[in-house]
Amino acid sequence: MKKRILSIVLTLCMVLMLVPTTAFAEGITPATPQTDTDGVYQIGTAEELYGFAQLVNNGNTSASAVLTADIIVNKGVLKADGTLADDTSGFTSWTPIGNKSNRYTGKFDGQGHTISGLYFNDASTNYVGLFGFLYSGGEIKNVGVIDSYFVGWGQVGGVCGLNDRGAITGCYNTGSVNGSGSNVGGVCGYNAGPITGCYINNGGVYGKNASIVTDCDVKSDEEFANSTVCKLLDTALQNASSDVRFCQRIGKDASPLLTYQFDSIDDHTDDNPKDHICDICGERLSDHTGIDENPKDHLCDICRETLSNHTGGEATCTAKAECEYCGAEYGELDSSNHTGGTEIRGAKDATCTEEGYTGDTYCKGCGAKLSIGTAINMLDHNLEKISAKDATVTETGNTEYWQCKDCGKYFADENGTDEIALDDTVISKLPPEIIEGKGQSITAGEKKELTFKSNAAFSDFIRARLDGKTLDEKNYIVKEGSTIVTLKADYVATLSAGEHTIGIVSESGTATTTFIVNAKAVVGNDTKSPQTGNNSHMTLWIALLFMSGAGVIGTTVYGKKKRAK
Ligand SMILES: [Zn+2]
Ligand SMILES: [Zn+2]
Ligand SMILES: [Zn+2]
Ligand SMILES: [Zn+2]
Ligand SMILES: [Zn+2]
């Protein structure tokens, strides 16, 4: 783009035209900007920008200024391809700030604003740019020059034509810069001071450099559009401890880089990461506080950082607490907060023999045992009094006692405290005695049955005894009535002379009596045979025996069983 036109005629013209152009187009009337309390001019309009240029070029070279807004001088100076508009007739021509006679030594801070539409088109002029001549002590920073067109002779730069020991920081130029002579650059034509963090989209950063140029580069239009340059500029600003930042609406500010004092935080970009910080300019756009609407999950809707903890709700032994804010379950079960009711387990009624139990209380929710029950006192026995009864020979008696109708236990007292066995109440049968057959006597060798009756119960019969020895049961018969023992005649005939003792042994005792076997008389002295009578008796007994054979046998068997006891 830089076109060097070698023309002797133009060279001569240049020499004649070293005086800067001071003519203004009719569109803009210069206005002196207001100053703040520090005397810094506050430039917010094109008129004020022109007024500031006039002020400096009239000799107030150390005046400092800031931009308070983006300044638009002309619109559509460049076409989309970066070349000059076809019709330039309506453009107001620019007057560079500072010239060879009035070298700028003030501090100009664009505060991230742009100046758009500067138009200077005089191929015979030196010191051309936003600033014409920057001198030692002077500073230009944080300003973007866009949609602008500069043509001069030499020392032509988008930001500054000639920099003699001044400083240029954080600036950019996407305008067109051309010169017919020497030292033409996108930022500075002839540079002899530090340039830091400045970017252009065409040509070179400088035409000639005699100082230190740091973090400056030529970037493509795409890099200007996608915020690459913006971020580089902001890094430069940050390094310079500046509070202002460039920013850019990606997609909207696609063509030239723009700096904005955005009306809304929405103009900033906070996509990656979503952290409330503008991805481009680094400005904090919003705060966590209160931003948790959809969903209400305690997380910042923007950055997903946790803003608050779950709260409220009540944990029970079976369910965690439900957050009153987000509805989620959280925390742990509360094993001490039982729910779902309780139930009693292991309850048992008391009886007269066992204590009862009220049962243990369990949580129906979690099954935990909540409390232990207590014993229930035993019930009183349901006592029935059994009166005392005297014993008889055939029947036992009993002492007075009480029996519980429920548990069946026996007690010696009416309060049921002295438990006894039923046997303890039994009064033994009275001892039996011979009630028939006492005092009998026979003659030795006489075959005669001898019958004895005990008043003991027949069922109690055990055995018969003669003279202290158990009688062989073949020698007697026993039958009921109460207990009748009859010694058989054959056996009786074998008994020796003398007194014999018969015992009828029963369970209730032994009834005894004696009988006499008399010595046998001398045979010769006998007038009648005693055998006869005996024989007739014996015959009678044998007859009876046969007549009731079955009954006798039964009786005998029964007797054996009793004896076996
Ligand atoms: Zn931003
Ligand atoms: Zn957040
Ligand atoms: Zn919650
Ligand atoms: Zn529970
Ligand atoms: Zn009982």
Structural write-up:
By secondary structure, the chain is α/β, with parallel strands linked by helices. It has six domains: 8-239, no CATH class; 270-308, no CATH class; 310-339, no CATH class; 342-376, no CATH class; 383-427, no CATH class; 434-563, Immunoglobulin-like (Sandwich). 13% of the residues lie in helices and 28% in strands. It contains seven helices and 43 strands. Strands 1, 2, 3, 4, 5, 8, 12, 13, 17, 18, 20 and 21 form a twelve-stranded mixed β-sheet that branches. A hairpin with a 7-residue loop joins strand 32 (410-411) and strand 33. It starts with 7 loop residues before the first helix and ends with a helix. Residues 1-25, 525-533, 541-546 and 548-565 have low confidence and may be disordered. One zinc ion binds next to loops.
Q: Quote the average pLDDT.
A: 85
Unreliable sequence segments = 1-25, 525-533, 541-546, 548-565
Distance between the termini: 148 Å
> Helical segment tally?
7
The distinct bound ligands, ions and cofactors come out as: zinc ion
Q: What is the strand content? A: 25-35%
Envelope shape:
rod-shaped
Number of strand elements: 43
- The residue fraction in helices comes out at 10-25%
Number of domains: 6
Report the sheet with the most strands, covering strand number, pairing sense and barrel closure: 12 strands, mixed
Topology (elements, then pairings):
Elements: H1 8-16, E1 34-35, E2 41-43, H2 46-57, E3 65-67, E4 71-72, E5 107-116, E6 119-121, E7 131-135, E8 139-146, E9 149-152, E10 156-157, E11 160-164, E12 167-169, E13 172-173, E14 176-179, E15 184-185, E16 188-191, E17 195-196, E18 199-200, E19 206-209, E20 213-214, E21 217-218, H3 221-225, H4 228-239, E22 321-322, E23 329-330, E24 342-345, E25 356-357, E26 360-363, E27 369-371, E28 375-376, E29 383-386, E30 397-398, E31 401-404, E32 410-411, E33 419-420, E34 426-427, E35 434-436, E36 441-443, E37 450-454, E38 461-466, E39 469-470, E40 476-480, E41 483-487, H5 489-492, E42 498-506, E43 509-518, H6 530-547, H7 549-563
Parallel strand pairs: 2-3, 3-5, 4-5, 5-8, 6-9, 7-11, 8-12, 8-13, 9-14, 10-15, 11-16, 12-17, 13-18, 16-19, 17-20, 18-21, 36-43
Antiparallel strand pairs: 1-2, 22-23, 24-26, 25-28, 26-27, 29-31, 30-34, 31-32, 32-33, 35-37, 37-41, 38-39, 38-42, 40-41, 42-43
The chain binds zinc ion (5 copies).
